[in-house]
From TrEMBL:
Protein name, per record: DnaJ-like protein subfamily C member 28
Superkingdom, taxonomy of origin: Eukaryota
Ranges of Basic and acidic residues composition bias in the record: 339-355
Classification via InterPro entries: DnaJ_C_subfamily_28, DnaJ_domain, DnaJ_homolog_subfam-C_membr-28, J_dom_sf
Gene3D superfamilies: DnaJ domain
Length: 378
């Protein structure tokens, strides 16, 4: 009995020992990871590699990418260190996906998963696999390819629209031909009617009493080389009050410039030549008002330069200093002209006075001689 009991107990221990060892081995191997994976967790600066969520891993990778990405412009940018951070990020994502997957799904490609979990800027930097060189060079090449692709699409669209329009126009050609032939018939009929009426009037002699009969036409005497059609069109436009916008603007600029110059000249001419303090204040007020008018006039000149049809007809801005100098010189010239006119008037009066004295002297001598002879006879 005792022997049988000891035999059963020993057999039960033999069954329990392998199970306990297997359970302990599984528990001990669960949280342990490889040294390279630990180094990846440490490189990503994760607090706990065993309990880090994908969101925490992504946040850590974003923080390090902003620091070390070569295109970030940060002072800590390092292409080699960023490449290591990216490899560590992919390895950690692969490890976490392997832990969270059931056994039947472990055969899925880990690279595709990490690629799908990669950041958006990595997809952006791929440039659809176009170009070579640095990221900046690849970006320029990708932009040029996009421009070429867009221009090609525009050309294709225009070609399709032209084909569609041609097809639609082909359906209307026959109707247009009918309408055109009908209009031609009507025009010819009207022309024949007018010609018949003219011939009848000439036969009756209605055109014999016209003014200027038998004389050449003086319709284009201002310019015999002008095209009659162009002359008639311009005359019709002028008679109806039409003028091109740049012509109207040019006229307004010239009129405003003449008014400003006249205002400055008259204002300076009214003041004394060595100006007093009061004259200085009046002159400064006049210059300030003219400056505001010149600003508006220069804006008008800019608008005129945009619409004028020829470059040699463009105008330059008016300067206040040049206009002031011009007004001062004009006022000085006006004073000189006035002084010359006064001198001429004075000389003319002197000449008149001399001639009057020369005429009155013989009369006085004759009167004196007659009085002397009368007194002698007495």
């Amino acid at each position: 009995m005792n022997c049988t009991f000891h035999l059963l107990v020993s057999r039960r221990r033999w069954y329990l020992l392998p199970r306990q060892s297997l359970l302990l081995r599984a528990l001990s191997s669960g949280p342990q990871i490889s040294r390279s994976l630990q180094e990846n967790y440490r490189l990503l600066q994760l607090p706990d590699e065993g309990h880090s969520s994908p969101a925490q891993v992504k946040e850590a990778y974003l923080r390090l990418a902003k620091l070390y990405h070569p295109d970030s412009g940060a002072p800590t940018a390092d292409a080699v260190l960023f490449a290591r951070v990216e490899e560590a990020y992919r390895a950690v994502l692969a490890h976490q996906s392997k832990i969270g997957q059931p056994d039947g799904e472990k055969e899925v490609d880990e690279e595709d998963k990490s690629r799908g979990a990669a950041l958006q800027h990595r997809h952006y930097l791929s440039y659809e696999g176009v170009g070579s060189g640095t990221p900046g060079q690849r970006e320029r090449q990708y932009r040029q390819i996009r421009v070429d692709r867009a221009s090609e699409q525009v050309l294709n669209y225009r070609q399709r629209e032209h084909e569609r329009a041609a097809a639609a126009e082909g359906a209307l050609v026959e109707r247009d031909m009918r309408q055109r032939s009908h209009k031609i018939k009507i025009t010819q009929a009207v022309e024949r009617l007018v010609e018949d009426l003219i011939q009848e009037s000439m036969a009756r002699g209605d055109f014999k009493n016209l003014s200027g009969a038998g004389k050449p036409l003086n319709k284009f005497e201002h310019n015999p080389y002008a095209d009659p059609m162009t002359h008639n069109l311009n005359r019709i436009l002028i008679d109806n009050g039409y003028q091109p916008p740049w012509v109207v603007t040019q006229r307004d600029i010239r009129e405003t410039t003449a008014k400003i110059r006249t205002k400055l000249l008259e204002g300076r001419a009214r003041l004394s030549d060595p100006m007093t303090p009061k004259d200085h204040r009046q002159w400064e007020q006049l210059c300030a008002s003219v400056e505001e008018e010149l600003i508006k006039l220069n804006k008008m000149v800019d608008n005129y330069n945009l619409i004028v049809p020829m470059l040699n007809m463009q105008m330059v801005h008016l300067s206040l200093s040049r206009e002031i100098d011009r007004a001062v010189k004009g006022a000085c010239q006006c004073r000189l002209d006035q002084q010359k006119e006064r001198e001429k008037e004075r000389e003319r009066r002197k000449e008149e006075k001399k001639t009057a004295n020369a005429i009155s002297k013989p009369k006085n001598t004759k009167q004196g001689l007659m009085s002397w002879m009368q007194s002698l006879l007495r």
